[in-house]
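Escalated from tier 1: 4'-deoxy-4'-aminopyridoxal-5'-phosphate holo job.
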Amino acid sequence: YYKENTQVFLDGNWLLASEATTNLYAQTLHYGNGVFEGIRSYKTEDGVQVFKAKEHYERLKYSAEVMHIDLNYSVDELTKLTYELLERNNLENAYIRPLVYLGENMALQPTKEVHVLLAAWEWGRYLGDKQLDLITSSYQRPNPKSSHIQAKVVGHYTNSILATTEAKQKGFDEALLLDMNGNVAEGPGANFFYEKDEVLYTCPLGNILSGITRQTVFELAEELGFEVIEKFFTPEEVYKADAAFFTGTAVEIAGINSLDGRKFKLKWEDSMGYDLSKAYKNRVTKREYKNFELV
Ligand code: PMP
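Tier 2 regenerated the structure:
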């Protein structure tokens, strides 16, 4: 993730990533109490643009607030620092990782020692370009009554890691996790949509991370005249779907081939998700969504 000359922003300083250090007694390291973001920048016709920086940093502020972490940076400051980070590292199409972590403290209470790290690197689409074979996970997403599920909390990702590891061990590409009621929630690092009879379905907010890509898909669907319905549904309903896809900053829009060995009817190229994936690429690079050839 970093090279010899990679710079990171840490607590007001620009440091070489290879020289930055952390305290071994940091609370985030021991208990997972920290918050983070995953953001992408793209080379566009108007120079390098951080896609939806405001939405990402507002979510970071929300995540910090509900976890009782004092994040004393504004959305504007964080956005400016992000552009500086990209410039200092000569990055265009990059993945940006802001991490807010807590310093030395072994008590079960957030410490006032709050650290802010901004790092970035070049990263291809997280799940690649192949259509994914999913398995319904034996792990549920954390119950929203056990944590702030709409916050991007470091510790929540142990659940994601367990689910992905299980899926891979069983020979699948990725997991699909259910909520505490047995309805489909989301992937380990992405939101889920399926297509049935030319309508898109995704679960409502409440038991999932409120994805910024998910919201972008709502906007693009409206522009393309695609209907999207938010409702709860089970894996059995997904088995009857025509197509499905994941949405997320790291995965972008990733086509899904099958769930639990049941292949979807439509070829990815003939699905609404495919059109949305083209529209998304054009949107993040600020090109016209109708001009698919440009991608
Ligand atoms: N759900 C989870 C659990 C995630 O980790 C992510 C990635 N941040 C998403 C959904 C998608 O969110 P976004 O589109 O904002 O990247």
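The longest helix spans residues 53-66.
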